[in-house]
């Protein structure tokens, strides 16, 4: 997707925005750790009017709260078929999967990773997933992988420095 910015960026959450761990309290509550670095990736895309969609197989309000905090309008929880969900969103937005960038980390992401215009995975993804994507971040999931992915997209299209300067 070099030479053309995506018209939509889709991201998985567990293993991309989180380290993939689930933290349980004695009462059974689940907690997830998010990196604030990834929030900047969303902000950078918003500066260029590129929407972000979260698609995760997990159905937890923790992810909804993170999406709300970052003003992400497209947040799909409990997704069993990410390709079908992405195709539906693309129809709604009037774009094709070829105009989408997606970062995912595991087997349930692979069908969509194979169809989008630009695919990526975090550095700690299994090798058989890494072989299928166009870019592998050096950052691990939960440690800025999403932001690195966004910065790579913007840098490859000559837009990263322009966006960064808006905040200096």
Overview of the structural elements:
There is one protein chain. The protein is of the alpha/beta class and 168 residues long. 35% of the residues lie in helices and 15% in strands. It has helices spanning 36-47, 61-69, 82-93, 110-113, 127-130, 145-156, 160-165, and strands at residues 8-11, 23-24, 30-31, 52-55, 74-76, 100-103, 118-121, 135-136. The chain has a six-stranded parallel beta sheet, sandwiched between helices. Strands 2-3 form a two-stranded antiparallel sheet. Helix 1 runs parallel beside helix 6 (145-156).
Question: What is this structure, in a nutshell?
Answer:
The protein is an alpha/beta fold. The protein is 35% helix and 15% strand.
What are the secondary-structure elements, in order, as H or E?
EEEHEHEHEHEHEHH
Strand order of the main beta sheet, please?
A: 5-4-1-6-7-8
| Shape summary | globular
Main beta sheet strand tally, sense and closure: 6 strands, parallel
The separation of the N and C termini measures 27 Å
Output the radius of gyration.
15 Å
The overall strand count is 8
Any low-confidence stretches, pLDDT <50, length ≥5?
none
Number of helices: 7
**Proportion of residues in extended strands:** 5-15%
Percent helix, as a range, is: 25-40%
Which structural class should the secondary elements be placed in? alpha/beta
Organism: Bacteroides clarus YIT 12056
Protein name: 3-deoxy-manno-octulosonate-8-phosphatase
Family: Belongs to the KdsC family.
Keywords: Hydrolase, Magnesium, Metal-binding
Per-chain topology:
Layout: E1 8-11, E2 23-24, E3 30-31, H1 36-47, E4 52-55, H2 61-69, E5 74-76, H3 82-93, E6 100-103, H4 110-113, E7 118-121, H5 127-130, E8 135-136, H6 145-156, H7 160-165
Parallel strand pairs: 1-4, 1-6, 4-5, 6-7, 7-8
Antiparallel strand pairs: 2-3
Helix pairs in contact: 1-6
């Amino acid at each position: 997707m070099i030479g053309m910015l995506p018209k939509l960026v889709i991201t998985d959450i567990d293993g991309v925005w989180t380290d993939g761990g689930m933290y349980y309290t004695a009462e059974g509550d689940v907690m997830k750790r998010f990196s604030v670095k990834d929030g900047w990736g969303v902000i950078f895309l918003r500066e260029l009017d590129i929407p972000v969609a979260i698609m995760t197989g997990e159905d937890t309000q923790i992810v909804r709260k993170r999406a709300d905090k970052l003003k992400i309008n497209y947040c799909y929880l409990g997704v069993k078929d990410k390709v079908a969900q992405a195709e539906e969103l693309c129809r709604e937005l009037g774009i094709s999967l070829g105009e989408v960038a997606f970062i995912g980390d595991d087997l349930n992401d692979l069908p969509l990773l194979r169809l989008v215009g630009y695919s990526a995975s975090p550095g700690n993804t299994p090798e058989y997933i890494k072989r299928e994507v166009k870019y592998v971040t050096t950052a691990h999931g939960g440690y800025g992988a999403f932001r690195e992915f966004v910065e790579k997209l913007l840098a490859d299209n000559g837009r990263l420095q322009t966006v960064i300067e808006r905040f200096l």
